[in-house]
Germination protease (Mordavella massiliensis), 1288 residues
Amino acid sequence: MIEKYSIRTDLALEQKERFEADHVEIPGVIVEEEEDEEKEMKITTVRIETENGAKAMKKPVGTYITMEAPGLAVPDEDYHREIAETLAGYLKQFLTPRKKDSSVLVAGLGNRKVTPDALGPYVVDHLNISRHIVREYGKYAMGEEKVQMVSAIVPGVMGQTGMETVEIIKGIVKETRPDILVVIDALAARSSRRLNRTIQISDAGIHPGSGVGNHRCGITEATVGVPVIAIGVPTVVEAATIVNDAMENLIRAMESSETLKGAGLVLQGYHPAEKYELVKELTSPHLHGMFVTPKDIDETVKRISYTISEALNQLFSPGTCS
Amino acid sequence: MIEKYSIRTDLALEQKERFEADHVEIPGVIVEEEEDEEKEMKITTVRIETENGAKAMKKPVGTYITMEAPGLAVPDEDYHREIAETLAGYLKQFLTPRKKDSSVLVAGLGNRKVTPDALGPYVVDHLNISRHIVREYGKYAMGEEKVQMVSAIVPGVMGQTGMETVEIIKGIVKETRPDILVVIDALAARSSRRLNRTIQISDAGIHPGSGVGNHRCGITEATVGVPVIAIGVPTVVEAATIVNDAMENLIRAMESSETLKGAGLVLQGYHPAEKYELVKELTSPHLHGMFVTPKDIDETVKRISYTISEALNQLFSPGTCS
Amino acid sequence: MIEKYSIRTDLALEQKERFEADHVEIPGVIVEEEEDEEKEMKITTVRIETENGAKAMKKPVGTYITMEAPGLAVPDEDYHREIAETLAGYLKQFLTPRKKDSSVLVAGLGNRKVTPDALGPYVVDHLNISRHIVREYGKYAMGEEKVQMVSAIVPGVMGQTGMETVEIIKGIVKETRPDILVVIDALAARSSRRLNRTIQISDAGIHPGSGVGNHRCGITEATVGVPVIAIGVPTVVEAATIVNDAMENLIRAMESSETLKGAGLVLQGYHPAEKYELVKELTSPHLHGMFVTPKDIDETVKRISYTISEALNQLFSPGTCS
Amino acid sequence: MIEKYSIRTDLALEQKERFEADHVEIPGVIVEEEEDEEKEMKITTVRIETENGAKAMKKPVGTYITMEAPGLAVPDEDYHREIAETLAGYLKQFLTPRKKDSSVLVAGLGNRKVTPDALGPYVVDHLNISRHIVREYGKYAMGEEKVQMVSAIVPGVMGQTGMETVEIIKGIVKETRPDILVVIDALAARSSRRLNRTIQISDAGIHPGSGVGNHRCGITEATVGVPVIAIGVPTVVEAATIVNDAMENLIRAMESSETLKGAGLVLQGYHPAEKYELVKELTSPHLHGMFVTPKDIDETVKRISYTISEALNQLFSPGTCS
């Protein structure tokens, strides 16, 4: 693989796949796969159980569930309802066993004004917010016995606020004392075929710009003081990534070609660092900061955000209709 | 006056005018007026100095400066620049004498999705945010020696967040420790002629739904722990208000009419509570929750928010261009 | 009634009510009322059959169906589906008997950037557009035998385009030759209780600023060359109207009061023109161009526009899901 | 070059560069370059004078002026004013010599809801529209003697309207009879370094999806009946393009490498069709319909659209302020 570690992905699933390609087992990492043919979904659970596993995976210890549902990118209302139900089911696993009268704070991360980054804010737009009602009138005001107190915030991004997202959330958590924090964020994938058709749920929190490994900024139980469930959907692929993928494919293609086999083997023999330099030279410096995204991203992000908020509403305010 | 106290206004200036109409002096309240004919602005300063004055005015102790500038509602770029400069000047009075290296948090209150309420969020959209840059690279990164650290938040409204705005801001202030808080909010005026052409600056903080007097929710130095400067622009008049105004005018008109004088005097003699009941009966219950706003409100709010953010940028990041 | 003819309403229903208040029959105008208690809807059909009737009603000859459905302003998805079905049913009456393979052009009038005026553009946003698909692949591409060709345009308002809306639509109709034109527009009502809970359907076309009676601008079969069905929802009341209503109520209230009866009778005796002058004096000149609208107008307009597009989709592309 | 003709570009400049790389002169095509060092702009004029030239360039006969201004992508107000002036100057060349009292229709093509495609609609948002005022009050109402009648339309895209853009524009042109049509559109570039920093002006009209060469849809003097000036800015690069570019760079790099030279020469020797197949195999089928765009595209498109409308306002309504 050319410079496998330099390619950014926020999906534990894709991190794992890179090892598989090399037929390597990672100690401390357990992977389970499940296919739901009827719903056309594939569920992969990656459990990073040790610090060594975390190091190898470049992701913190925790459980990462990935739902791959090609229909997520398509405007089929019934199918989206099914996904919302499935998603609610998996989220529930992370919630039990919590006390009955719990309260949840949902944070919609990202920049509302940059479409592929607006997933989090859009999810919050459609949530059933109840904390202020329950506090004012008691939970019977919601017409349900089991209602939880839901509050939500769209903190914005650092360029808009001048503050680390974790500073804002930490302050609000301390002041309003929710039992759990759910963060929603748009992710970067490595493979364009995962764009807008994959949802990752994790109890490991969120690490903005996690490739950089800046743990100071992480939004985790350690930094904010309450358990954190992260829900993410890859909406972009970094432009450099697709060039890199094509390169890998070229090298593979060369190996099986009579006339090019020699060169293919030479390239294959390169040290990752050498390959990385090669790709960097081949790609335009103008690609930096560019991302790849589908033409219909505006509609797609809206649709998926609606599906996620439906799942959260089913989970936290089952009696009310959204 | 029919039920003067039941009419909502967020402008200290309008509160004061009600007393003037009755030729009443309010102890503990000092009023200064100033006219800038060249700039076509009228500046009124209301100083509420005692708790008795505060009680009479139904506004907390503090200084309220009101700039009335008819041109604010008109798309004249040069004039808006002048207003921005004047506004920056008055804001500076509230800031001195603070220490040199201060940091400011700007909170844009209100609901971005309800146009007349979106003033605060729009102002934040155009601010020069610098806190993260100064923290990362030092203030020389801004190319200026005197730059302040500016951070900003759009907290949303309770229906969107489930939290009191003051909870969110208090949490963020505790976590990020700004020296001063500036809050921007859209206000309700009593008179439609003040809509979108008046700016009120105050050091008394903001009292959401202040007519109700819910001090628990106030955003003041007492509740958030740092000095608060509030900037407000009236963008709506409650629908009931304009009916009330017409009633008052009618009663006055009757008194000066031969045939109606008797009835006018009878009505005039009513106790405020009686008049209040009368107006309530006359107006449709459907008016509740309705407001009066001009047709071009979308454009107007954008323009004024831009003027206010220009004033803040001049004040807090004078070297950078917006 | 004070100056009944000066009050603007775009609803034939409200025009008719003014006559009823005076117990006047209008020759050439037939009115039918129907109540659907189960669906909590009231349907009023006003048929203006003669030019004399049109003159009296200040509306062109034609049929005007008004659906009053209080639930329209409320976020209840099931109820909105019911209204959509009922609306589709009434629209169908205007369509029969047309030829099988007809094509329809839908025009969403109004200004997308002024919320209460954005109804038309929003409806078009959610339509199933099929003309280009049917033309490219035949109607079987839509998976339905009876599919109609639906095209749509959001022409904008004169301040944005410099053109009369009818010029734009006429040009497009001539070029693309639809069999029928459906126009959607936000209306002004006279009564605030009708805001956002009333739908008017008419085959008389639309007369922008119809109170002014500028027939040059009308969008009718006569001006565009194909039959026109207009769908309108009142989203604003002019500010002056609510003052006027309160005045009328006051005069009525005075008549039943011991002490004020005299004055009430005096006012009642005024000629409409005198009353009109009185109201004009009582209301602020700043009210001109102001309108009354509910706080939640952004959400409400979105919801109703969605209901109307669902009705149109059911009617014109029954097989596809929206 | 790998499959040079399969790569989409809407810039005549980039079409020409492909020939230059092969050191080929194109008969019937004249190219002039000009550098304005002070303004940091490069101006290239491509004149396609013969049908043979048009065939070779895959662009219709006409003049194409390309302004490359790196500062266009940067938020510097003064620089944008300079670009607006320069742009107005070049546009003027296409206008002379027309009659004094001319009228212009501006069409903002593209989809307002897909950010990189919203350039045209955004430009129209900021135009000074005057046709309706001049028609109502005469040109003196604009306070200027030389004012032109400006009208504008945002026609939407075929998926939204069901109509070809040219059908809509042709209908409006026939109905309102402007002397000239200006169309604004977002383009696809071949090179990511040209994104958002290049403006192309042409008198050859616009050919939506021009790579496909579907002349039926073209918006040209031939199809709409009046002269057409097209203004375009590349805001996207097709995802496949950047992979292709990297491939070309790789092949070049291989040739100058000891160990890879052989393979490089082999690849270089491939027929374009063979190379095209190779690239197609190397890139993911999921890249189809994907485009590359910078992270800050929302802000950038707004800024550039503002610059273009300023240029048009200077040109067509010089006395009024925008």
Q: What stands out?
A: DSSP finds twelve helices and nine strands in chain D. Chain D touches chain C through 30 residues (CB under 8 Å). Confidence is low (pLDDT under 50) at residues 1-5, 210-215 of chain D. Chain D has one domain: 2-240+289-316.
